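Q: For a teaching session next week I want to show students how multiple molecules come together into a single three-dimensional assembly. I've collected the sequence lines for a complex. Could you give me the predicted structure tokens for the whole thing so I can convert them for display?
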Amino acid sequence: MTSDFSTPAAPGGGTGPVLDGNAAAGEFAGIIAGDPTIATVRCAGCGAAQAFGQLHAYMGGPGTVLRCRECEAMVARVARTPRGTWLDLSGSSSWSFSPAPGLA
Amino acid sequence: MTDTNTALGSVALAGNRWRKATLVGVHSQSWHSRTLDLHVPGWTGHLPGQHVDIRLTAADGYSAQRSYSLAEPATPDRVAITVDLLPHGEVSPYLVETMEIGDELDVRGPIGGWFVWEPGDPSIGDGPVLLIAGGSGVVPLVTMVRARKRAGDPTRTMLVYSLRGPRDLMYGPELEEMSADPSAPGFADVRLVYTRRVPDGHLRAAGHLTVEDIRPPSAWPEPLAARVYVCGPSGFVDHATRLLRTTGYPEDRIRTERFGATGATR
Amino acid sequence: MRHIAGQVRFDTGRSRTLVWTKESINSSVRRPPLETVGSGREHRVTISRGFFGHHDPRAADLPPGQHLTHGFPVLTAGPTQLIPTERWSFTITPEIGEPKRWSWDEMTALPSEEITVDIHCVTRWTKLGTRWRGVALDTFFEDVETDDDYAMVHSYGGYTTNLPLEDLLGGRAWIAYEFEGEPLHAEHGGPARLLVPHLYFWKSAKWVKGITMQRSDEPGFWESFGYHTYGDPWREQRYADD
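A: Of course. Below is the structure for the complete assembly, covering every listed component.
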């Protein structure tokens, strides 16, 4: 998915260069065993459950920030630095990886 | 049928590291986009809808990273991406205008097992499947349709493709062939939704996606698809999702993927 | 001056080993990025012929590891905040004593100045000669009594960043509300942002809302998450423990 997001969004303002959990998934490679996009994440702020792929992702800065698509509270962030990798899930009350009904 | 979790597990682990990719083929898709065929030794495959992260590094170490959907179903050692040129972008001008056969970059992937349609997915059942594309969001959705044809999967499918005008059309000949004969294998309904400029003879006037545009074809037995995939710029994804909810789609039938802003100024 | 030596292999079809020292960083040989693996060991990077992106490869007097850029990347930790000036306020809260608050009209009535500064982002881009208008923090602090040496800066939307009070004073920091002669756009932190150009730009908090004085240097959003608590680009203090 073309996401050449170094260019700003509409100059009048708006939501900014927001992507989603699909775009952020690569940042979790090697941190979470398996595929983060199949997780269901519950926001600790408003309680909304959503697919990881639906989280709002803010990328390109010092780290990647994932926010609840309902209330925009931060549910997770990850920073990959040469000194180490940081993971913060404190804004999520749960991550659930059960397969969807019907999958083996 | 392969165990989806096993397949996803192995492709997810493979997606951990960067690998060198070499450009071995290009073909133009529209006035401002082209498909790049990359040779990636050891590429073990991917599912329709997955993407790769691309990293470009200049000789002095400056680097930029972006994500692109995989444009072709899996072939050994081969990765294809279709890139749309954003005039003020940092990476797309290089990929669309500068990169030549033999040039190299780093790829990481495949990534993402949620925004995926693997033919035969039991959670979709008998379908049908609705695909809604905004601009270059058509790339992963056409990959899904190709994979469905390759697998001989008969799931009823409609692709609704929103684009500005005829110059922006990607995969034109393929979409025509795909929608020509309802009895042919790989058939899919295709609806082109032009938002700004309309070709001569096109029946629908220019305008943004409406509830009418996502209404299923009369041949479908149900008023709603079993699964919807929406891909495009953030604003488009929000708009299409609102229309789907208005139409009565429950949340768990909708899967979305957002691209970055397009046509942006400095 | 610390001496750094290292080796990175580039894979361009021919092997090449680069050895660099801190002295050579500001010459035409720039330090190449290391792959971010947990142990920090060296890793291959593929060079893409003819790729420049938004950076200008010509050498300039930049802090170590930085690249000159065109454009002005919009990087954010959250959605763009849209704060109408009628609703805007800026508050300095000492640890003891009354907070001092300025409305938009009060703030813009304070003596302001036009400044031209270079800005350095920890993600390695530098933009030279950016022009701003703002009110120096010295002016605000004339009306504030505090014994505390440290400050936590707060933004609308919840972002925070910390720095010593002395780095806000002495003509080194502003509440900026114009950029290149125009009102500061929301996507770049408008209506007003903190501007502290002598530190990495993550310290120049967008959508600034207030400053809370603190007795100790408690870390803010990125400082508590792998990034340096001070962040001097000229000493390349990007990450915690640098």
